[in-house]
Each structure stands twice: as structure tokens, then as C-alpha cells.
Structure prediction request, 987 residues.
Amino acid sequence: MTSLLVLLVVVLLGVAVWQLTKIFDLTQIGANASDDSGIANDKDNNINGYLMFAFLVFIYITTIYCCVKFGDLPLMDNSASEHGPDVDRLMWISMILIFFVQTITQALLHYFAFKYRGKQGKKALYFADNDKLEFVWTIIPVIVLAGLILYGLYAWTNIMFVDEKEGDPIFVELYAKQFSWEARYAGEDNMLGKANVRYIEGVNTLGVDMSDPNAQDDKVVQELHIPVGRKVIFKMRSQDVLHSAYMPHFRAQMNCVPGMVTQFAFTPTMTTDEMRQTPEMVEKVARINKIRAKKSAALVAEGKTALEPYNFDYLLLCNKICGASHYNMQMKIVVVSEADYKKWLNEKGTLSKAIKEANAPAEAPAATEATSAPVADTVKAIAQLVK
Amino acid sequence: MSAVGHDLSHDHGHDHEHHHKDTFITKYIFSIDHKMIAKQYLITGLLMGIIGVGMSLLFRMQIAWPEESFGIFKFFLGEKMAPGGVMKNDAYLALVTIHGTIMVFFVLTAGLSGTFSNLLIPLQIGARDMASGFMNMISYWLFFISTIIMLCSLFVESGPASAGWTIYPPLSALPQAIPGSGTGMTLWLISMAIFIASSLMGSLNYVVTVINLRTKGMSMTRLPLTIWTFFVTAIIGIVSFPVLLSAALLLIFDRSFGTSFFMSDIYIAGEVLHYQGGSPVLFEHLFWFLGHPEVYIVILPAMGIVSEILTTNSRKPIFGYRAMIASVLAIAFLSTIVWGHHMFISGMNPFLGSVFTFTTLLIAIPSAVKAFNWITTLWKGNLQMNPGMLFSIGMVSTFITGGLTGIILGDSTLDINVHDTYFVIAHFHLVMGISALYGFFAGVYHWFPKMFGRMMDKNLGYIHFWVTAVCAYGVFFPMHFIGMAGLPRRYYTNTAFPLFDDLADVNVLITVFALVGAAFQVVFFWNFFYSIFYGKKATQNPWRSNTLEWTTPVEHMHGNWPGEIPHVHRWAYDYSKPGHDEDFVPQIVPYKDGEEQLHH
Prediction:
């Protein structure tokens, strides 16, 4: 199918070009026996004027085709977080506005190009200024943008300024490293223990400071489970380079920056199972599985193993270039009921237990202070040099 | 002010009686003539463009047909980056990085601005040459050296820089994180430092020339819009490029001398590194303080070129000349206070996000004014559909399509979900990549007769435009949709996520359009190089234009005008003015008695 499509496009383009050349050649007949002046004559103006109009039609058709064919791809109306609908509504408003302005301005531009195509002896209108017009198309964007800015800032403030005391949030640390994610749950006390990469040792892969009382009941897992309807505050860290925790279905994204803790919070509104049963998702999964089945058939024919059928899961993707395997840095997110969440979390052992079992009690390396001092000196020395 | 310019330009005038003979080297290589330097920039920019676009085709093929073996990969990338003809994942990132670097800096900054600022500033303001021809020459040769170093970095053992064109540390600082951050990154930084020096020399020259060397009568409000945009672009460059230089230098310190400006608490390859106290977010601030103005450095000259060509070929004055200048100034000012919209989710204080959303969306206002003024310029015109005109109309079209999605990306709330997805790629490629390229092509077609004294073939120009226009939409329009579907950029393949399986067809479609579109650029290159030698000889003013460059002889000469420098009596846009027989009135024509005077 794909290769057929490709072939078709190539052939059609080839034909289009051949036709174009023909048309341009034909325009020369009768004008001057051989017009090689390089300057457009009336026939060129005519042809290109009509082509401008055709191009307007092309833009519209492309737009409609893309909306119909790919319109169900976007994540614009099946958000799974409490703030999601706010984002989606703003997205829709902006999109409708964009399509409206795009349709009108492209129409004017290309229609004028068609309508006023040049003709020998015609004289253009000497029209250099009109303050009223300038005022109109300054003030209209001002008003429209004022609305968009206000709505955007309102939504942004609600999403980003997180009150940690409000409600009963869960604290989860998202820990990024080349090329995988880990998560740390705060445990019974709902307080994450301190951490620094300098504490990394053996099974303590996140560098949790085990001398911190808050750290004793922390749990480290490789799959994120969160309860529906409860606010989750993510504290994000990175071990090596910049990463970005992108959870598109929740309209959530925040960079993970080595040396600092960033945060993002949202309240999931739909469990994984509920999401799987929405009509859009059923349709999407069916479509994807059809594609995969076809690919599998081809693979089996080559004697390779078939692809697994796809079932929907929320995902955490890395969305900041982080190295060679950036394209495959993901973690599954499972949204479940509060009860299931508690059950799942209780089954997980604490980090301190894991460390004891590994028989390697983490000792806080006292090196932090010692190593940083000479570095700070170097910085100072170089800063002085620069001065 | 213009009187001063007049005096200076006379002091600067050459004495043609004692003209010394040019050797091949002084004429074609170490030339200090602005027209030759413009041509050098043009040719270098075009060659870099071939490399930059070629790279994009390679990685587009990898996205469309992931991990398949291609002979062409083997040929271009070699056994090390593409064993058995299958592109490796770090080779993919290297290509993405160098494609971005080459296109943004070498093609659309140096290639576009360097060519047309050099060619047009002295010719359109009525000067014999740049304020400092020598510095101009140095500027070009530094640029040339920086391109050579960048190209050399492709061949080092550990591969070229691969951390994205934004080179965010720590990825760009640690060879343990990605091999390209070794020697390849060092060369990238050196190349960029030299490039910045070149750019600054060029910009200073442009600013000084425009301020001091205008001919008699050429007041600032009579300058063609091309000159206004080149002038403002140069100022933005002077303000912002040094900040990138400082970021690059600090990064060199971090990489080579053990400082911690941009890094802290890093554990990689089984060991804790010594870095303590720095922040990658600081680098992002420094980078985007240049990075965002940079996109205006790229697009403003294209806007100026398009304004000039639209007007000439519409046979109508530009609509709202003063509003156009005001909007350029407004864009320039705003461009320096919006960099944070690249960093909404970088971990900086969300309050800053609010501020940057506000300033960013404001840019839509002057941009809208420009777009409406261009459209009104066409209204009731007598449009001469020369190839340059087609590309100018095309530029307005892609600028609108690409610019509109800016109100989504500039809105911090919406940016959360589309940040770093293909939506961003679609947006900036249309609004600055394709638009600036169209401006570039428009300029080449329009001023080719001025540069080479010959005409390009118009029919080949038409084919070039129409196929490019269709393919550009075909490539970048569908990208909005896969971006809104959440597909992250800079993924070597999307096969790791079954979630994205239904985007595979779209990606094939995009790649096919890209391949066809790129293949048709051969038409342009053929037309360009053939016409340099065999094109029809140009007349002095083939487009019947008002500006001063068309009053110089077709054959190039040092000093531009054989006699005295012409005086200017009117603004540049008296097209189809009532009371004149011709539909254009060059700037050198004095006002008749009682004639209406616009813009003194």
C-alpha cells in the first residue's frame, strides 16, 4: 500500500512537471518566436496567475485531506488528567482561530495574485498608505491575542503553581538516566528522602541518602502506578544529561535536569482500563493492530518473529535529546483505582530492605564537600581571569 | 544626516584614473569588492545548502523506512556510521545536529544575509563600497574557515557533534554521554566561535555603512525596505551573537578546563563527575538569548527582499512603508525579550513562563501587520509573474501558514503538550526555514542580472517554484498532525512505540515529498550555473525598478558608478504614480513641480 502510494505520488508529480513544461513552452508560441528575455510576459502572467489560484485550491485540499486522514491522530480531546480539558479547550480555540485566519489570508493572497495578474498597458493603483486600515489590522490581533494570552495564563497558573498542602497528593520521584526511567514512591510518610547522585552505590541506583529518616520507607520501581482521582506531584531528577518526562495523555511534560529537582503535578481522571474502552481508543488500537498484523505477516514470511499485538498503555516518553538510544527511553504508566494502587504499592519492598538484602549498607560518602571545594576555587580563579 | 553621508561617500570615492590592475587573486579570491564578496557568500551558502539538505534527506529516509539498508547510506556515511548500509542511531543524531547547524547558521544567516547585505547595501544606498572593504573580506574568509572546520568535524574518529543544534550540556559536554561530544563537539565550538567573529565583522560593517555612507538625498525614510531589514538584522546580530560566544566559551571551559558553569551532580558511566553548582538551564538562557533573535536574523532579510520584489513586480508602492519599518523595529525589539518561550518546561520558574508567553504572543501583532501590508500591496496591482515574484508570494504564504502555529507554541499552556514534537518542526521549518529559503531564492532570481550581468531562464524558474511550493507543503503540513499526535522529534525510529505505528504512512509520504522536492532543486542549480556563463545578457534595469542598484552599469566595476554617485530625490516606491508616463519613477528622478511627495 505504502509503496503503491509512493509510486503514485512520484508518477503524478512527473506528469505534473511534464505538463508544466509543456504549458510554459506553449506560452512562447506566438509571443516572440523565442522569448529568452527571462522577463515575464502576459502569457507567463496568465499561466502563473491561474496556477496561483490552483495553488490556493491545493492548500485547501491538503488541509481538508490532512484533517480527514490524520485528524483522528491528535491528542486533543481524550485527555486523562484533570487539567487536560482546559489545555484541550485552549488548543481547539487556537486551532479554530488559526484555520479561520489561514483560510481567509491565503484566499486573499492567492486570489489577488490571480485577479491582478499583469497585463501590458494596465496601470496599477497608486495606493501607498491608509492609516485606518493599518489601525484595523493592528487592533484586531491585539484584541484576539489579549483573549488568548489571558486564557493561556489562567490555565498555566492553575497547572504550574502547585500547592503541595492542598488535597492529599502523592509524591513520586521520576528519575531519568540514559536510557531508562525509574520512579521512587515516598512510602508511608509521604516524604521523599534526600538524594544526590554521589550516594549511588549498588542497588541504590537513585542515590538516595539512606541516613535521611524520610528515605527509610521509600520504594523504587520500574513501572509507574498511580491512583485515579488523586493528585500526583512528580519530583523529577536526572542522573546524567537533560531528559524530558513527557506524558502526552495527561498533557504533562517537564524537563529532568541534572543538579536540580523540577516538578509537575496532575490528577489522573481515567484508569488505563477505562481509557482502553473509550471508542476512540478502541478504534485507534484496532487500526494499529491491523498495521501490525500486516507487518507481522511480512516478517513471518521472511522467517522472523511476528510483532506482539498492541494494547493501549499510558506512557512516559523521553522528549529531550539525550543520546543514541533516546528514541527508546520509555516507562509504562498504569492508572488504577485507589485500592489497586495501595495493593500494588504494598507488594513492593522498600529500598532500605533491598539494600540490606544486597548486604551493602549505603554509607553516605562524605566526599561531596571535599570535591566541591577545589572546583569552586577553579571557578573563582577562572572568573577572575575572565574579568 | 544625509548630508553627512553624502560627504563621506565622496571622500571614499575611488580615483579611477589611477586604477591598479586586478590579479586573479585580488579579483576572485581576496577581493575587497562588496559585489564579489556577495557572490562568494552566495556560492558558499548554496554549496552548504546542498550538504545541509542532503543530510536531511538521509535522515528522512531513515525515519520513513527505519533500519533498512540503503546503498546511499553506505556511500555517504561509510561502514562506521552505517554498517551494512543501515544507519546507526548516533549517526542519525549527528546528521540531525549538523543539518540544523548548517541550515541555520551557514545557509540562512551567512548565505542569505551575507549575500544580499553585501550586494545591496552599497548599491541601494549609493555608496562606492562597504565602510571597510578589508574587514568585509576578513568576514567572508572567517566564515569560509568556519565552514571548513565544521565540514572537517564530519570526518573525525568519534563522529561529529550529535547533541542537537542547540548543543545543550551536559549531553554536548560529555563524550561518555554520546561519542559526538568528543572531538566533533570541540570542532563545532571552534567553528561557531569563528563564525560569530565573522558575523560580527559583517554586521558592524553593515551598520556603519548604512549610517554613514548614504548618498545625498537618501534619508532614512527613503531607504528601500531591504536596507532597513539588513540594518536592523545587523543590529540584532551585534546584540545577540556575543552572548552565544560567551556560552560557547563557558562550555569550552567546562569541557576542557574542569569548570562547572553548566553542570552539577552528574553520574555517568559508573562514576560521579566532579561538576558541582552549575546549571544546564543557565546554558539554555544564554543559548536562546541568541537562538531566538537568530530566527529573526534569518527571516528579516527575507522579509526585506520580499517587500522589495513584491513592490517592483506589482508595479505598486509598498503599502504602509512606515508601518513596515515600525513593524521591523517592533519585531527586533521583541525578539530580544522572548527567548524563554523555548524553555517553558525547562524547569525555570513558571512565573517566567507567564512573562514570556505575554511577550511572545505580542510578536504576532507586527507580524500580522506585515502580512496584511504585503497582501494589500498586491491588491489592484499589475503583477509581473517573474520567478522572483512567485517566490515572494510563496514566502508570504508559508510565513502565514507557519507563523500562525506560533500562537500555539508561544502559549506556555499549549507548549506543554507539543513542545519538542513534530509540531515544532513543522512550525519553524515553514515560518523560518522555507520562508527564508523562498526569500533567498526570490533574491537570487531578482538580483541575478545585477550579480552576473545575465538573466536566468524564467521557465526553469517557474518549474522550480511550483514543484518546490507543492513539495514544501507536502513535507511540512502533515507534520503538524503527527506532532499533535505526540510524536517526539529527534527519534531515530518510531518503531519502539507501537502507539505511533499509525504514523508510519504519514512519515513515508513526507519523505517522498522531501526527496522529490530536493531532486527538483537540481533545476535551480542547473539554471543558476548555466546562466552565469550562457544566460542571455541582461539589460541595465530588467525589472524596471526604482532603486539605485539598477543605475549602475551591467559590467561590474570597483566603486559601482563610473561618474559621480547619483543623488536621490524620492523614496524607492513610486510605482505607477499618476502624472508619469512610465509605471516606475527611479529614485534619481527629481520631483516635478507640484508633485505629491511621500516620505522625505
The CA atoms of residues 216 and 567 of chain B lie 5 Å apart. Chain B has 19 helices and two strands. Confidence is low (pLDDT under 50) at residues 1-18 of chain B.
